Structures are given as C-alpha cells and as structure tokens.
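Deliverable D4.2, example record:
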Amino acid sequence: MNSISRQITASPIAGALGAEIHGVGPLAQASDETIARIRELWLQHSVVFFRDQPLPPKDFVAFARRFGDVVHYPFLKGLDEAPEVITVAKMEDERVNFGGLWHTDTAYLEQPPMATILVGREVPPYGGDTLFASGYAAYDALSDGMKRLLEPLKAINSSAKAEKTRTREDRKPGEERKVLEAEHPVVRTHPETGRKALYVNGGHTLRLVGMTEDESAGLLAYLFEHQTRPEFTCRFRWQPGSIAFWDNRCALHNPVNDYHGHRRIMHRVTLSGDRPQ
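Output generated by the structure prediction step:
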C-alpha cells in the first residue's frame, strides 16, 4: 500500500453499502493514484460520499471524466457553462421532487449509465436525504430456487412507466415525450466485480419479457419490495458541497421528499455504461 492509499480512508455508513471517503484533498486536484483508490473503494462499497467538495460545474465534469465518459441525460437541458451537468431541483412551492421513488437511473436505455455523481448546492435545513439500496445484497439474500427462477428472465424497462409516477424529471411542460424502452436481464453480472445483482426497479421496470404486465405484476412487486428491505440500504444526509457517487449497475436510490417549503438544488452528471449482461 502506497502513502496515498494509507492517507485515504473509508468509513462505512451501513452494513450493505455506502462509505464516506476521507483524506482525498480537493477532488479537482486529485492525482491519478487518488482517483484509482477512489475507484477501488467505490467498487467495494457501491456508493461513496465526500464532504466539503464544492466543485464548480466545469471542475465537476472534469472530475467525473476521470472515471469514464460523461453522457447527457435524455430529457433535460444541461447548464450553459457545462452542458453535461443537469440541475436536480425542488423549489419552495413544489410538492413533487425529481425522481422521488426507488430506481436506477435511466434503466430504459439500451446502455444505462455506469454511474451517477451528485453534488449538493443548496440543501434544506432538514430532510432531503437520499436512500440507497444494494442490488448485490438483494440478490444474495434470495433462495436458491428463486435465483434459478430469475436467472434466465429479462424485463422491459420503459420511460413511460416513469411518466406515470409524475416525478419532477417527467413533468417538463410543452414537450411531447418519446417513449424509450430497453430489455435487460433481471439479474445482471457486474462487469468489474463479477458479482450478481438484482436489476429491476419500481420506477422503470414495466413487465417481464414474454409476459403481460398483469402476469408480471406479482413477481415484480415482490422483487421491488424485497430489494429495498432496510438491511439492504443506507441513508445519506446532505450538506452544501457534499458528493454522492454511486454505481448504477448494482445500487438503487430514492431521494426522500420530506422538506416541503424548502429549496433543494443539486447538480448531476452521469457516466456512460455498457449493455447489462
């Protein structure tokens, strides 16, 4: 272990996933060795967090690019100064938040993003935490019989289902939305760790391939509930300059909508992924 690895530490915040990383210094100035260590810890914990890292948008994008190709979100326009960065916002007069349910980001794409990085700009005085859940832990806890049942199954993920939830990301006015759909395995194998993860989510997974929505509903409802059991989750409390960096290939997230009357402004980038296998 080199000196940089010894300086960087990770403090787990729950048993299933999630750790705060300390000792990295300003992320905008991170060395290649620091980036490599962060990636190692990220793969180990599925979601990692940093404090006091108020990266301006251009530096935020530059940091993200150290881990992969940055991709544009399909439904919202990015910042003028950094088009790859989108604003995730809930204003004081709004009651519905952006993506306010358990999901993995844009699972309706043929190649869903590998990762998402979110930085807090303005946070409410209380509430507005984000929950994360481990697809690894959810899969590992299944019986052998259920694993055998799920192994060959694929599911249709649709942006149309996201619209039905009426989250803020799906309420852009005056625009006809193109429906995006993709077929993915119910259980995917992580391309870097080799671990298997349950890969369905209540926000986007519509039905199982070869079945109707009604026929799929019972099994999917069980899986949606199972994968967010408390022992598979962690919870992160935001501060200005806090960063969450999660692996969409094995983790779900859910921003808690419990801060009506207060403003919450975040910036987000996503990193290009591969086709789930």
